[in-house]
Design a protein that fits this description.
The complex is a heterodimer of chains A (114) and B (113).
Chain A: E1 4-7, E2 10-13, E3 19-25, E4 31-38, E5 42-51, E6 54-57, E7 64-70, E8 73-78, E9 87-94, E10 104-105, E11 109-113
Parallel strand pairs in A: 2-11
Antiparallel strand pairs in A: 1-3, 3-8, 4-5, 4-9, 5-6, 7-8, 9-10, 9-11
Chain B: E1 3-6, E2 11-14, E3 19-21, E4 23-26, E5 32-38, E6 44-50, E7 56-59, E8 62-65, E9 75-77, E10 86-93, E11 101-103, E12 107-112
Parallel strand pairs in B: 2-12
Antiparallel strand pairs in B: 1-4, 3-9, 5-6, 5-10, 7-8, 8-9, 10-11, 10-12
The chains are: A mainly beta (114), B mainly beta (113).
Chain lengths: 114, 113
């Protein structure tokens, strides 16, 4: 299994509070991604990173920010959590950003916003 | 834009039955195609992949063939087991740099004794 650790695994928070999810990898891969998984939508890309301090938006980035200060860590922050951000969040890593290179996923963080 | 369409689930089969999960895609260029599997409470695991037309990906008895003429990548297994019960996702990734992975909505497979 790819060395990807997500923390926390579960979190319950209140509307309006900031939340930070962490992804840590031991593979030294350059590319890291945050996805959310919701019923009927599959997985949707929130943000991704192509190197330290290099990040870009995905298809559902509103309300989220990311940071990558070290190769191994990619943080996802919900600035002010809303109920629509209740979801399961997955971090993924990839050795390359070309088409043939697969993504490898962590075990996810289940976030509930009340 | 790119998109992936999977058959609606759940798919319920008896053990040792033949499995087909349909997947079709829309993409510009020549994407790579993937099947991922998700067991309850876990992340997605890469099951198999194919990177060009007519390639066949295979793993753990599962296989899928990249059919460019029908833009399809159907997942098959000759004899399913209860342990195959999971959600299966078809996905594509563009060629070129900065390519993204686009997923289908997933198909739940339930295998019973």
């Amino acid at each position: 299994d790819a060395g990807i650790t997500q923390s926390p695994r579960h979190k319950v928070t209140e509307t309006g509070t900031p939340v930070t999810l962490r992804c840590h990898q031991t593979e030294n891969h350059r590319y890291m991604y945050w996805y959310r998984q919701d019923p009927g939508h599959g997985l949707r890309l929130i943000h991704y990173s192509y190197g330290v301090k290099d990040t870009d938006k995905g298809e559902v980035s509103d309300g989220y920010s990311v940071s990558r200060s070290k190769t191994e860590d990619f943080l996802l922050t919900l600035e002010s959590a809303t109920s629509s951000q209740t979801s399961v969040y997955f971090c993924a890593i990839s050795e390359s950003d070309t088409g043939a290179s697969p993504l490898h996923f962590g075990n996810g963080t289940r976030l509930t916003v009340t | 834009g790119n998109s992936v369409t999977q058959m609606e689930g759940p798919v319920t089969l008896s053990e040792e039955a033949f499995l087909t999960i349909n997947c079709t895609y829309t993409a510009t260029g020549y994407p790579s195609l993937f099947w991922y599997v998700q067991y309850p409470g876990e992340g997605l695991q890469l099951l198999l992949k194919a990177t060009k037309a007519d390639d066949k990906g295979s793993n753990k008895g599962f296989e899928a063939t990249y059919r460019k003429e029908t833009t399809s990548f159907h997942l098959e297994k000759g004899s399913v087991q209860v342990s195959d019960s999971a959600v299966y996702f078809c996905a594509l990734r563009d060629t070129g740099t900065a390519s993204k992975l686009t997923f289908g909505t997933g198909t739940r497979l339930q295998v019973t004794l």
